[in-house]
Amino acid sequence: MKRILFVDDEISILEGLKRMLRPMRNEWDMSFAPGGEAALSMLEATPFDVIVTDMRMPGMDGATLLEIVREKYPSLLRIILSGYTELQASLRAVPVAHQFLLKPCDPEMLRAGIARATSLGEVLDSKMLTSLVGALRDLPSLPRVFSELKAALAQPNVSIDRISQIVEQDVALSAKLLQLVNSAFFGLARDVTNIKTAVSCLGITVLHDLVLTLEVFRSFTENEFVSVEYLEEFHRHAQLSARIAAGIVQKTNISPAVVLAALLHDVGKLVIAERTPSHFARALEQAHDEGRPLFEIEERLIHISHAEVGAYLLSLWGLPYAVVEAVAHHHHPRRVPANGLDMVLLVYLTNLLAHERVALDHGLPAPVFDMELLEQAGIAGKLPEWRKIAEVAYLSPAQLVN
């Protein structure tokens, strides 16, 4: 059973929560704390899996409480409850909350949000993973893209199209934006996997406040372990993978959400580079020296790779499961039962096609495709056509297809 701690300074609201959530008592072991201080005392005494807190509380508000929880108990899933009228105040919780829910909260919506956010953690069951990702406050954005976004948002009549074009250049900005829009706070009836739609739903005003006023996003600061040049290379690969996916989607019946999965497939590299830069640099060096893929070095060193790290982050942030699954298994598509050309297999392919295209252009060893798997999926014959799509995407970089 999941152990869940609910926090609100008003006793009447806590009593209402108890009554409303009574049908969940066979699934959840629930506790209720009358305020932030009481919640911290209970956390010291008892381990919990999830904390759900009201935003507006006197003394210690929800954002402050979750910041403390992030530092002390990084593996906890952190959820903030807020009303539309508290949106501006709630934006302060963006760096520390995994999920945003609109109050009064429907029990089924809460159950679905918790199930989605914790499902991958149950499968992977890695304390290192939950600690590494859970303590994360934000992801670094490319300096040039971040500066471009700030300048655009400072313009009074900037268009949604212009902001979307900037955001989709950066994996960190894209992932964070989609976290917010896919949270239950916005009450959308469908998953959002498109950057332009996400910008439209969130709105220019909210984005302006997040970036310019509250400064919850930040530019990458170069350090001795990870350079801006590496980050630029990282984003070029993500963009190329997404463009290849977009080209293949136009010729197949697969969901356009695969373009987003291809864009975000390596987001775990940003997490590791941010949280443990020296380890990340060491793994990169070993991969280069041994001529082996980075994920193999990571699995040897810490038994998980950037694929699982990235997928776990996206699952905490509530992104659609199909996207999370494709990110998690893009190096090991055989983990998922064969189903023809699905999102997992296509992200595996777009990643390799992007690497292959760059390798050919620079005279480097090309990656090896699992041809037996492609034969089993009935798509091996499509590889020459998709290599042409990759060549066009590589030679003619353009904005992603939305």
List the main descriptive attributes of the protein structure presented here.
single chain; alpha/beta; 7% strand; globular
Question: What is this structure, in a nutshell?
Answer:
With 402 residues, the chain is α/β, with parallel strands linked by helices. It has helices at 11-20, 36-45, 62-72, 87-90, 107-124, 127-134, 143-153, 160-167, 171-181, 195-202, 204-213, 228-249, 257-264, 267-275, 277-290, 294-302, 306-316, 321-328, 343-362, 371-376, 383-395, and strands spanning 2-7, 28-33, 50-54, 77-82, 99-102. It has 21 helices and five strands.
Taken as a percent bin, the fraction of beta residues is 5-15%
Major beta sheet, specifics?
A: 5 strands, parallel
Radius of gyration of CA atoms, rounded to a whole number: 21 Å
Helix content: 55-70%
Alpha-carbon distance between the two ends: 40 Å
String of helices and strands: EHEHEHEHEHHHHHHHHHHHHHHHHH
Estimated structural class: alpha/beta
- Provide the low-confidence segments as ranges: none
Helix segment tally: 21
Mean pLDDT across the residues is: 89
Total number of strands: 5
Global shape? globular
Question: Strand arrangement, largest sheet?
Answer: 2-1-3-4-5
- Quaternary state reads single chain
